[in-house]
Design goal:
The chain is built from 14 helices and twelve strands. By secondary structure, it is an alpha/beta fold.
Length: about 400
């Protein structure tokens, strides 16, 4: 008799894995769900409560905290009613910060005696006088409660290790870098050629095609678009006849402001595609010659890993996300300024051999170091440290039907 897959509770305080809006956060959440299944677990979405808030409004915070308390009580009661074979063996939360703390997981895991796993959490450097101080404390409390912590950026590891102290086993703090399936980005040459021709239009076939893939939001995303536009405008002023085209994939609430920022460029040089689905992105990467996205304020930057998987060199600005995700030797990282960005872009526009070499290096790096298979292995190796021993097949309980579902069911 085969033992049913053990139940793992999965929670995302920032964005649901089935959110309509495409984003790197959503793709990583889905990769974690796939990883839990690959590890022999049956993931179930514990709650749909999203705690993320841009500003700290006391009344709204109280409301969210009350909802979290109710959710924690309901989840605890729900699984206590189940027979032993249908109860969860693990809780995993993806993303825990001062703006989106996990207010549910620590309560439920303590009540049910479950291992508590955090993926992508950080010890915020925000000063204690910040309005988010109560939620900064909540995020730190969750980190204190965690039995296993996966950081998604190498730069977070030292801070997390210091925060947890010497009594927290080093093997329970691991790097789980954003990764993709390289096979998805192997695009047939004829498809690449057809899309490239369509994007270039009447421009000569050898015209360098710059690609920007980013949501159109305010704050950091808008600042990145503005820096990109300023850099390209400088390139155009210096050499009006230098050939290049910019293709932008993305949409969002700040679209009109992004369009205004890009309005400094001739309309014939820019193509706005709007939102592009994940299934269409690999061909778009393959058709381009360079990914040009500053990535200001990006915490992760999955877009850089996707571009690398497609063999696309990158120009980005130094920062937490780009520094951690741009493939070594697969792109150029510059200081966050339009002149520096323009200089790097200009060099790649004029050097096709350098673009090709960087793209090849980037693709090889993803295949060796950032594949989804490796991501799943790293996750499974860490989970084995905290999971209870699996029952022998002859001892496997009948369990609960919910615990064997192939996809995660939605709970209120």
């Amino acid at each position: 008799m085969t033992a049913p897959a053990a139940l793992a509770l999965f929670y995302t305080p920032l964005k649901a894995p089935d959110a309509a809006e495409a984003s790197g956060d959503r793709e990583i959440a889905r990769a974690l769900l796939e990883g839990l299944r690959a590890a022999g677990l049956a993931p179930e979405l514990a709650s749909r409560l999203l705690t993320w808030r841009r500003t700290f409004e006391p009344a709204e915070v109280v409301r969210v905290e009350r909802l979290a308390a109710v959710a924690a009580a309901r989840i605890t009661a729900r699984y206590r009613r189940r027979p032993p074979g249908g109860r969860p063996v693990l809780w995993l939360t993806y993303q825990n910060y001062h703006r989106c703390p996990d207010l549910i997981g620590p309560v439920v895991t303590t009540a049910l005696g479950l291992p508590y796993v955090l993926v992508d959490t950080a010890v915020s450097g925000k000063p204690r006088r910040t309005a988010f101080r109560p939620w900064l404390s909540a995020a730190r409390l969750a980190l204190r409660r965690a039995d296993l912590v996966f950081a998604m950026s190498p730069r977070d590891l030292p801070c997390l290790a210091r925060f947890r102290g010497p009594t927290f086993a080093a093997e329970r703090l691991r790097l789980l870098a954003p990764s993709v399936d390289p096979a998805r980005y192997r695009v047939p040459p004829e498809r690449r050629a057809a899309l490239r021709q369509a994007l270039l239009g009447p421009a000569p076939p050898a015209t360098p095609l710059l690609l920007c893939v980013a949501m159109m939001r305010t704050a950091d995303k808008l600042d990145s678009y503005r820096l990109l536009a300023e850099a390209l405008a400088a390139i155009l002023r210096a050499a009006p006849d230098r050939p290049w085209r910019l293709v932008v994939a993305g949409d969002g609430p700040a679209r009109s402001r992004v369009e205004a920022a890009l309005g400094v460029l001739p309309a014939a040089r820019v193509t706005l595609l709007g939102a592009v689905g994940p299934e269409e992105l690999p061909a778009l990467y393959a058709a381009a010659d360079c990914l040009a996205f500053p990535g200001l304020g990006e915490a992760l930057g999955l877009v850089y890993v996707e571009a690398a998987a497609a063999g696309l060199p990158v120009v980005a600005c130094h920062g937490p996300g780009p520094d951690a995700t741009v493939a070594p030797g697969g792109g150029v990282l510059v200081e966050p300024s339009a002149p520096a960005f323009a200089t790097a872009l200009r060099a790649l526009l004029d050097d096709g051999a350098a673009r090709h070499a960087m793209g090849t290096t980037a693709r090889r790096f993803v295949e060796a170091e950032r594949s989804l298979a490796g991501f799943h292995r790293t996750l499974a190796e860490g989970l084995r440290l905290v999971l209870p021993p699996r029952p022998r097949p002859t001892d496997a309980p009948a369990g609960d039907p919910d615990a064997t579902q192939a996809s995660f069911p939605i709970r209120s």
